[in-house]
Specification:
Distance between the termini: 23 Å
Shape: elongated
Order of helices and strands: EHEHEEHEEEHEHHHHHHHHH
Largest sheet: 4 strands, parallel
Radius of gyration: 22 Å
Helix content: 40-55%
Strand order of the largest sheet: 2-1-5-8
Length: 319
């Protein structure tokens, strides 16, 4: 089975993570993971909401204040300087314009870009830590399916793999929509992503199967959007060793008649070692790929689960 590299996708990214000196103090927060590793496989669209709305470099820092669910962005010294509306407006504009991106990587804890746990200061001076940066919150509200992740969380191998999986699935759907959304194409897309979805969210895998069972009663555009929204929400749940192991068991079933008992036993042994934490996912999966090269299966050959992201990223070596 030949590994097919997916087309190169584009990610929007906080400009400071690429080393651009756009922060309030004239500095940057360059991410080696983004600048060196991910840049080999993705194109980047850098953006800095604070510079985009006219704040200078360097500049007075801003912070979030008030209701954590609806905070305002104000100057840390000049409290009367409220840039909430411009940040939200920029988020609205980018949500409409950045139609070619498949994901967004943002600077953590930023009052404009942070995805979660951004400090929101209260009247007593103490911060609540449940806010979102206004730009990112706006983009997430208007583009809820778009994969968004913070640079700090990408250091976690499970979260990193989950994000890149979602980016690739988002890109696959973008290509499908560009080619023309038909009932047949939606069913084929779901079939290709069956085991990937099963690994992330077995319950939603069954729910989405039931949704598509009535596809003939709906227009492709209407059902397709409902399906894709539910799919991307389901994929936000990280796969576990247990769910991965269950998928590996399903895959091994396609080799039952092709392999002698000792080779089937070796596969089962490695799957159980993975389930118990002895080896990473790449170990049993590499053995399965080896056997499928010797005994090809047309259905398994198109499964996104077998290689859902660029192989050179080695994302499955650490999970």
């Amino acid at each position: 089975m030949t590994s097919v590299q997916p087309p190169r996708l584009k990610l929007a990214i906080s400009a400071c993570l690429l080393g651009n000196e756009v922060r309030y103090n004239g500095g940057h927060k360059q991410s080696q993971l983004c600048r060196q590793t991910l840049a080999q496989h993705f194109d980047f669209q850098p953006l800095c909401p604070e510079v985009a709305i006219g704040l200078g470099i360097p500049r007075e820092p801003i912070r979030l204040v008030g209701d954590p669910q609806a905070p305002r962005a104000v100057g840390t010294v000049s409290r009367e300087r409220d840039v909430s509306a411009p940040l939200v407006a920029y988020g609205e504009r980018m949500a409409a314009e950045l139609t070619d991106i498949s994901g967004l990587i943002v600077m953590q804890k930023s009052p404009s870009c942070g995805m979660e746990r951004v400090k929101v200061y209260q009247d007593n001076g103490r911060p609540a830590e449940h806010g979102q940066g206004l730009f990112t919150a706006t983009l997430a509200r208007l583009r809820p399916e778009l994969p968004i992740e913070e640079d700090g969380r990408l250091n976690d191998p499970v979260l990193r793999e989950n994000f890149i999986v979602r980016v690739q699935v988002y890109g696959d759907w973008q290509r499908l929509c560009a080619e023309g959304l038909t009932r047949k194409a939606i069913i084929a897309f779901h079939s290709r992503h069956k085991y990937l979805l099963m690994a992330h969210n077995p319950l939603q895998y069954r729910e989405l199967g039931r949704l598509l069972a009535g596809i003939g009663e709906h227009a492709p555009a209407e059902l397709g959007q409902r399906y894709f929204s539910a799919l991307m929400a389901a994929l936000q749940k990280c796969a576990t060793r247990g769910t991965h192991a269950n998928v590996l068991q399903h895959l091994s079933g396609y080799l039952r008649r092709a392999l002698p008992s000792e080779e089937r036993h070796e596969i089962q042994q490695l799957i159980e070692q993975y389930r118990s934490g002895v080896v990473p996912l790449v170990v049993p999966l590499t053995l399965l790929k080896h056997h499928f090269r010797r005994h090809p299966d047309r259905y398994i050959a198109v499964q996104a689960y077998m290689q859902p992201h660029p192989e050179a990223l080695s994302l499955r070596n650490a999970i």
